Amino acid sequence: MQMGKRFMSDSADKLTTIFDRAFKKQQKAYHIREKVGELITQGSDESWIPVILGFLARIDEGYTEPRTSLIRALTSIDGQAAHDALWGYVASLHESSPDVLEGWDVFSPISWAIGSKGIGLENAKRLAGYAKTYTVAETLLNMRLRLYFDIRPFRFYFPVIRENVLELARGGIAELREFEWKPERPGAEDGLEQWQERENAEMDLCDSLLLLGLSDADDDEVSDLLDECAQIKGGYVSEGVVRAALCSGRALDAEYLENALNDQRQRWRLVETALELGREHEIPAHYLTQEQQAISHIASWCAHGMEYGYIFDKIEVVDTRMVRVVREQTGEAVSAPQGEPVFARAYLFRYFYPDWVEYHRKNHPEAPESSLGWKAGITGPFPEDQSELSMLPGPLNLTFGYTEPFELMSIEEHYRSFHLEPLD
């Protein structure tokens, strides 16, 4: 028993140290979140409660960065005392600063706790009562539910936000109808800016459709809206329709599912969703390979607005092997949380963008003519066993690409340029 008490005391001391340092150095939220997350994995307990409430009381308009991590730490604690402390803090915010309660840094960690810990509809309604129900729907949209494959823990919210979500989805449909249909990638006849506006509208509708995946399968109004969206062209729209159907238990049209899976940008998310929900038997077998998942990950990366903005014309898997992940500056092996070096399977690609041919010709005259427009990309970390389809869990992501012609480096040089040491 003495050891248990000592652990609790040490744990609360460590939490105090993290937030003391955060306030003194005015640290950013992501830095605090990482440290608190590590401590939560070691186990939280009721000795944290007075520490958390003390630091929450110190937050003011001048420095709010620690708030999300403080609330996350509070929601990680089991028991009635932590539950009462959380809702006491929420009630005090409602009384003194209702606008703060509706903000991302407060609403997001509390709403996630309600869903993931199964606290239930009563508390979902309670929180929605403190905030506007439209804010609930908007906040869940901002959480980018497409990053969560099994969204069923959020089903507690749907009766509260149903009408708002239907309104958001109908608004998204109306917005998309103002655009002409776009091809998979922009061409000379359609400017990249207008093309990406349509792309963003598709992603917004996709998020709304995912919220409809929180509904019951026998909700006819939702089913009719999903059927209406199934008539709209667009990869992200079809992603929203398919994942909403998967999450809500609705039947899927085999031809529509096949067409959605043909879009390389979204395929890995559809497969991951089906795997988590136990519906992978509905996915055609030729898509259920690690290589296909790897191709989809690099396609999704390339299509992101912060990268190339659209997908390549062609892609080839050049190599796959086990690698050791090394630090960029020192070359030392990156360690997993348990202290072992990170070993993982990586996939090396070359992919072709025709509008990069002239750029390569001008800036890399040493490159062979046949290599122009072909760039290098990599993705991982995957398990060594290629029957495992999902990336290894954790913050490490090896997915990245370069703009230089692929043929300017050997395969081994490519791996090392991505800070990976090939093991075979």
User: What letter string, H or E per element, gives the SSE order?
Assistant: HHHHHHHHHHHHHHHHEEHEEHE
Number of strands: 5
| Proportion of residues in helical segments | 40-55%
- Residue stretches low in confidence (pLDDT < 50, at least 5 long) are 1-8
**Largest sheet, strands/sense/barrel:** 5 strands, antiparallel
User: Counting H and I runs of at least 4 residues, what is the number of helices?
Assistant: 18
Question: If strands are numbered along the chain, what order do they take across the biggest sheet?
Answer: 4-3-2-1-5
Q: What is the overall silhouette?
A: globular
List descriptors.
five-stranded antiparallel β-sheet; disordered N terminus; 2 domains; 18 helices; single chain
Structure description:
The protein is of the alpha+beta class and 424 residues long. It folds into 2 domains: 2-289; 292-422, no CATH class. 52% of the residues lie in helices and 9% in strands. The chain contains 18 helices and 5 strands. It has a 5-stranded antiparallel sheet with strand order 4-3-2-1-5, sandwiched between helices. The longest helix is centred in the N-terminal third of the chain and has 24 residues, at 2-25. The model is unreliable at 1-8 (pLDDT under 50).
